[in-house]
């Protein structure tokens, strides 16, 4: 079958300029051009699948023909190392079952306690009327929560703090690399590179000590690290120390900035939709009555859950994802040759009127069970789909619920820049992040009025 090729494009550069200049428009144009579309990134053709049915073929039905890869992925590979996020399917086939138990629902109650504690410690510092960099704060919160969920068995707080500090340097490096996509630049012994190398050495040293200590005692501390150390593959082999290092690093990269950015989007969404915010506050006040959230509260917060779900639809941080084709195949009758790069855009899917009524309106009630039933499952892809779907989905959802209840329940946040000015590069995020805090009075507010 002949393929739809996107018109336009420049010699040598192809459609790269369009993609860089107006990325969100570009992926929507691709979507409207057909179920499988081709465009050129530089001299290289890239195939894009644009419908839920085609995403299902790519990620589930024909997933054996595709592996992690493609243009976006290559930029972050060096930082992700060989952990689950960045490894190929052969490695993932062994690693994923070993990692799954650490993210099992049964473990979430324990993680909830940690996340609630971390969030409360940060919120206690907030001052009514002050202006904060909400993105920076949420990055500290998610980094802190994940570090403590990983190493709750480490009694000395210095170790957790050290991991957090070095991870900050490493995660910052991801952004730097993404914005300067010229690989040799990152090899120059410039201060950022030297700092990053030192941070990586430090991470190895600290994680080595933790691993040695956990292995020595053999105890299950109920944290992510214990689960990974205790995990075995079918042949009864555990993870090597190098694998454990890689998993810690890739999890930190995949599981901190993503949730933090979602919190920033939610602050903007609630400011723009005071009706939604008021209804959510009503629910939080009723269920929590000003106290901290427990694991058992989560299912009672139905509307808040729908707000988080709707934010994941409107603002998918992983807005564009890629694969490469490992063996010749067909999608919608179009031949995809081995070696080709293939992309799909959760953003374009989420904004498609064929998938969602009034896709640009922020409507948490579209997630009411009776309305959500009609939705194609592959039309909603904030966490990807298939064998490489985000392993941290429940962890992240729980974390966002807790952080919404802690930061966006008792406080109204007013953006300093009312227009978020969305940016779409490695992630989809607002350009601005400063917010003015104003304290709400809560049902059983024991604190003195601010
Ligand atoms: C709102 C927060 C998050 C979002 C939007 C998100 C999104 C995603 C997406 C879209 C993928 C699939 C990428 C692809 O198909 O190429 C993914 C994979 C992954 N994520 Fe998340 N993620 C989030 C939070 C987390 C957290 C908290 C963790 C860990 C604690 C985590 C760990 C991972 C891992 C390990 C993978 C790789 C899974 C595999 O390849 O088998 N993520 N994430």
From TrEMBL:
Keyword Heme among record annotations: yes
SUPFAM superfamilies the record matches: Cytochrome P450 (SSF48264)
Domain of life according to the entry: Bacteria
Residue segments, region Disordered: 422-450
Pfam family, one: p450
Matching Gene3D superfamilies: Cytochrome P450
Sorted UniProt keywords: Heme, Iron, Metal-binding, Monooxygenase, Oxidoreductase
Keyword set includes Metal-binding: yes
GO terms, molecular function: heme binding; iron ion binding; monooxygenase activity; oxidoreductase activity, acting on paired donors, with incorporation or reduction of molecular oxygen
Cofactor(s) needed: heme
InterPro entries attached to this UniProt entry: Cyt_P450, Cyt_P450_CS, Cyt_P450_E_grp-I, Cyt_P450_sf, Cytochrome_P450_Monoox
Binding site for heme: 390
Membership in a protein family: Belongs to the cytochrome P450 family.
PANTHER family: BIFUNCTIONAL ALBAFLAVENONE MONOOXYGENASE_TERPENE SYNTHASE (PTHR24291:SF50), CYTOCHROME P450 FAMILY 4 (PTHR24291)
Name of the protein this chain belongs to: Pentalenene oxygenase
Organism: Kutzneria buriramensis
